[in-house]
Amino acid sequence: MKKTVKLSKNAKEILLSLENAGYEAYVVGGYVRDAILGKESNDYDITTNALPSEVKNVFFDKRVIETGIKHGTVTVLMNGEAFEITTYRFDGEYTDARHPDSVSFSSSLTEDLKRRDFTINAIVCNSSGEVFDFFDGIGDIERKLIRAIGEAKKRFSEDALRILRAIRFSATLGFDIEEKTKDAMIYTKCGLAKISKERIANEINRALCAKNIKNVLLRNVEIFAEIFPEIKKMYKFDQHTKYHIYDLLEHTAYVISNTPSVVYLRLAALLHDMGKVYTISIDDDGIGHFPGHVEKSVGIAEKYLNEYKYDNFTKDRVLKLVKHHDLRFKTDRVSIKRYLNEFGVDFFFDLVSLQIADKKSQNPTLETSKTYVEAEKIAKDIILKGECFSLDALDIKGTDLVSVGFCGSEIGTILRALLDYVISGNVENQKALLLKAALRMKQ
Fold first, then answer.
1. Is the pLDDT score of 284 beyond 90?
2. In a 3-state reduction of DSSP, which class is residue 253?
3. Which of 85, 214, 234, 366 could form a disulfide bond with 257, CB atoms 3.0-4.6 angstroms apart?
4. 256 plus 118 within the same structural domain
């Protein structure tokens, strides 16, 4: 029995327009794969035997954008939705390990599909939603397997970014990488040096935020180490302490998976302990210590964040998280208010999330995460009750101090002192009481 998938109205109209004009046309790749998996998707890529000029003629009444005309791709806007339509093609040599030096158009669907990356991405469907599978992609979906089409080494030599795409698909779908495909990835991994840093970062970000990242990181050490060399050193690195039941890479993988799926949090989790491989000191009792590992980790993190050209917000947030990830929180209400004031609400909760994940990924039997869970609980209660912990919430402003004779830099000094009084509980956050306290300071 033929398998079918459901297409959107616009996608069906695109395919029917090409078919009615006498051409072949299919949806290929991500949409069909996700539909078979029962996932929502709007990832429509269309392949056809119509040449780009012929596609433009078919859609003469639509807006057509020549997005990749030299590679056979045009984009058609159908009722405001963009569809990339690419002519069947053969690819020439890939001397840059990323893009073909030339392409030539083909009249064969199967020949076009042979140049694609993985079997699960080479399944197609027509306008009726009828599925055609020439490389057993559906079988690989059922087996939960990432497998390269044809000769795996050739696929990865053509485009080294496919190595990281395999990692990303494995992490997002929870699929294993087929043995020969994985061997080919390792054999060709040096090609990643030719890939733009931004493209590498994009794939790494998506993999880090995927649900299966822990297993994928631990099973693909050699690939990740091509991007972050410290990972090789972290593998089977014994921390020699009762607080850690995992080696350093295992610990890191658990921390990543235990943090919320946010790029900067997961980057911080990946990078937070890399400095340990350079700073370990084992005492006479055989216990490991890591003096200066935080500072070393910050330096390593900064190097990679710059190398892979992350934006300033991500860099600043990750470096600050790594810098403070070992901070030992006090859990009294006054201290929590001081943390909220020092770090700001958003960063405070990010830091607590990272620290909870860190502690849960050390030795769970010791329950060292309790302190941070309690800190998070108290902070949420402070915010819920509207308690003052910042100058913005102080019930007195600089203008109020000016009105009673304060001026210049002393205004800021007095406001900060008043905030400290309020946080400490020495005075209530009421304007009249704060003015009295300010005047006492002036005397």
1. no
2. helix
3. 214
4. no
